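Standup notes
- HV: blocked on the assembly model, inputs below
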Amino acid sequence: QSALTQPASVSGSPGQSITISCTETSSGVGGYNSVSWYQQHPGKAPTLMIYDVSHRPSGVSNRFSGSKSGYTASLTISGLQAEDEAHYYCSSYVSNKSVFGGGTKLTVL
Amino acid sequence: QVQLVESGGGVVQPGRSLRLSCAASGFSFSLYAMYWVRQAPGKGLEWVAVISYDGTDKFYADSVQGRFTISRDNSKNTLFLQMSSLRPEDTAVYYCATSITVPGGAFDIWGRGTMLTVSS
């Protein structure tokens, strides 16, 4: 069964860029192109930021971008803003099931 | 507008059962797969279950397989999660979600969630 590993926390200053990694740590193969990223502010439902590795839903700022290399997907946020401070979760969809990473707390210094 | 509203959460004793509901509006509910995702207090997201648009296909996380049943009533635009043999580790906010403008497996629409506490 697939497992996704994210760093517990990352931080950056306003205007900087940060990258959050999401590494598949199991024997799961295929379908890993179905990687999505979610932003969650405290007490709120998650919001989809990236799907299919690098696609942005309508309305999501182009400061958010996604990529993948091998078994590691990445979310990059450029031009950090205070409102970006939140938890971020990656997710993979394989064989009709989804799995989430453990989440990364982004702190904007 | 597109909306999902969960209900049915509360406090229940271990071993008991409970049914959650998710009322959908603003889109053609019967055309889309629906999902349940949960989040234990202070923890990350956990995918729980999915049901196909017509209810014929259902898949579950290993942690709830055999205890939870996902279902839907397309005539009432409502999704359900029947939970039995509840455990303290099932305590979480339960969200329903779907994929309307994006491929299945990515969730672009979420409800606000309903809180379930399993405790004696």
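- HV (later): unblocked. Chain A touches chain B through 26 residues (CB under 8 Å). Chain A has a mean pLDDT of 91.
- Next: hand off to the docking folks.
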